[in-house]
Here is the input.
Amino acid sequence: MTSKQLTSVLPSPTPHWVGDGFLVRPLFSNFAFGQEVSPFLMLDYAAPHEFRPSEQPPGVGAHPHRGFETVTIVYDGEIEHRDSAGNAGKIGPGDVQWMTAGSGLLHEEFHSREQARRGGKVSMAQLWVNLPAAHKSTPPAYQTILNADIPVVEVADGKGSLRVVAGAFGAARGPARTFSPLHVWDVDLKAGGALELPIAQGDNVLVALFSGAIVTSGRTIAQAGLLTFDAAGDSIALKATSDAKILVLTGKPLNEPIAHYGPFVMNTEAEIRQAIDDFRRGKMGRLEELA
Here is the structure.
């Protein structure tokens, strides 16, 4: 295999609060919603943060989405989800929530009631995945993917592991159902651990370094951020110089126009205006207050 070369390192931006439950860093930075990261749209990473015990769960109240999917990976704590399509779920460490907004819905995300009462560390990542134009109006759907159901590939010499959330790695196939060819690999490397990752010709590849330090293309990256690679080559090589937590994303670019506004991602401005109008008219459903 021929290694792709590192083309850019986007440092982790200043964090900001989403609601009162998630202190996130938007790792795609200026690349968000661009063709360079297609079929992905954006990635928020909430590093471990200690929360005080509370009777009122922190989080984000009801808000709409249309035209894409949200993928939430929990590393610490518990997160609960509800949406106007009638889906609900609770995910904990290692679990993944894959929500297809499709034609549109309302949803909310909070720390679980148990998590809020006991307080403690919460950490997670949320990825937005674009839907091809032909599937923008697909009915909303929801996948709860438990840690136990995610295949794990061990790194040589026991120096790490790779979880296949979506797509495949060798013979291991991830449980997530997707609308376009893509891979989501959740990687932990111990110091000295090394991986060579196959990348299909023409795929975009993004490496989010959450913590630790790695070497790739002869360069040591010792700060959190996003790494991008050139088009040539069919693999990337990563080696950890200190224990590293990494999310690797690869996929076929959709090569379609992207129009986005807030929680809506479509192909044209007219479709965005229609989404706003549909939301205001209540066509994305309702989400009743919990007692």
Notes: The CA atoms of residues 151 and 164 lie 6 Å apart. The mean pLDDT is 96. The longest strand covers residues 235-251.
